[in-house]
């Protein structure tokens, strides 16, 4: 894997969509905005390689801690739906002074939010990047039975997350997810950040609300969500969360002008496992802050 230097970010607070978000920032505050959204079980520190790289390319990279992940505020239990996440991205863009040059990058639940933004407000960002989760409408298409069964086995955690009180076991479950989803990757640093962001039962329950609220109330609408803007979609060759074959099958759901790349030798957390390659793919798609694509 390509080693990438990590620059220390600036920490900031920003008010958007009724919550105070904590965020990490790299780059000139006056540069065009690159908004970076993390997923589960992860934090804004997942962008510790991409953020400095984008700053060097002339972007102001801002990575918020998603709602429910400390130091960002907790939201009411019914406000962890995908529609809330998409609205967070749109309002964070405005609160941070973003303009027509702004770009949006999302991984895992951040990718789900990114697809939702392309559907609800496709012109809000100049460029979109989604990683590890295909467009929902593409993911909902029927798959061969063998692939469907393999994915169901891989998705056991989604059922586990529905069980009342399952947040009490996340201290054991989450490290196992990282091992399964990105085989061979040392997640020690990421887990330190993650458990600092989920310090108590309230925060851990909030992280599971993403799954509970979606599967129990918004799944049908989400499954019909079609990407509304061209995007770069990246999927790890050895992703243990969403089978790479499902990522490839979803290519047909990408709008015209989109680009797909299966990143070799990496799993679900591809931005951490091979930052050099992933950073280059993203930069090639979005351009520099001075001359965005």
Summarize the structure.
With 293 residues, this protein is of the alpha/beta class. Helix content is 41%, strand content 15%.
Count up the helices.
12
Provide the CATH architecture. 3-Layer(aba) Sandwich
Which range best describes the helical content: under 10%, 10-25%, 25-40%, 40-55%, 55-70% or over 70%?
40-55%
- Integer-rounded radius of gyration: 17 Å
Are there runs of 5+ residues with pLDDT below 50, and where? none
How does the helix and strand content classify structurally?
alpha/beta
Biggest sheet descriptor: 8 strands, mixed
Q: Tell me the strand percentage band.
A: 15-25%
Widest sheet, order of strands: 1-2-4-3-5-6-7-8
Descriptive report:
- With 293 residues, the chain is of the alpha/beta class.
- It has one domain: Rossmann fold, CATH 3.40.50.
- Helix content is 41%, strand content 15%.
- The chain has 12 helices and 8 strands.
- It has helices spanning 50-56, 82-95, 109-120, 136-139, 145-154, 156-160, 170-181, 188-197, 201-223, 244-249, 270-273, 275-286; strands spanning 10-16, 19-26, 33-37, 60-64, 103-107, 127-131, 232-236, 259-263.
- The chain has an 8-stranded mixed beta sheet with strand order 1-2-4-3-5-6-7-8, with helices on both faces.
- Helix 2 (82-95) packs across helix 3 (109-120).
- The longest helix is centred in the C-terminal third of the chain and has 23 residues, at 201-223.
- The protein is globular, with a radius of gyration of 17 Å.
- The mean pLDDT is 93.
């Amino acid at each position: 894997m390509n080693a990438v230097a990590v620059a220390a970010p600036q920490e900031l607070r920003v008010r958007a969509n009724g919550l105070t978000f904590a965020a990490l920032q790299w780059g000139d505050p006056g540069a065009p905005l690159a908004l970076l959204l993390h997923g589960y079980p992860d934090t804004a520190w997942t962008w510790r390689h991409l953020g400095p790289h984008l700053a060097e390319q002339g972007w102001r990279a801002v990575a918020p801690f998603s709602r429910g992940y400390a130091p960002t505020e907790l939201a009411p239990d019914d406000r962890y739906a995908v529609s809330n996440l998409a609205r967070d991205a749109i309002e964070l863009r405005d609160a941070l002074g973003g303009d027509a040059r702004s770009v949006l990058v999302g991984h895992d639940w951040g990718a789900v939010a990114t697809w939702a933004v392309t559907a609800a407000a496709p012109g809000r960002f100049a460029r979109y990047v989604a990683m590890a989760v295909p467009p929902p409408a593409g993911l909902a298409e029927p798959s061969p039975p063998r692939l469907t069964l393999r994915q169901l086995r891989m998705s056991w955690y989604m059922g586990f997350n529905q069980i009342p009180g399952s947040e009490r076991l996340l201290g054991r479950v989450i490290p196992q997810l990282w091992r399964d989803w990105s085989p061979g990757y040392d997640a020690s640093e990421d887990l330190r950040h993650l458990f600092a962001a989920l310090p108590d039962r309230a925060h851990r329950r909030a992280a599971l609300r993403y799954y509970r609220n979606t599967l129990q109330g918004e799944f049908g609408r989400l499954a019909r969500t079609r990407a509304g803007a061209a995007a770069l979609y990246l999927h790890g060759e050895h992703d243990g969360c969403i089978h790479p074959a499902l990522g490839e099958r979803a290519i047909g759901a990408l709008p015209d002008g989109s680009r797909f790349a299966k990143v070799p030798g990496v799993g679900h957390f591809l931005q951490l496992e091979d930052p050099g390659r992933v950073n280059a793919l993203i930069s090639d798609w979005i351009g520099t802050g001075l001359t965005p694509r």
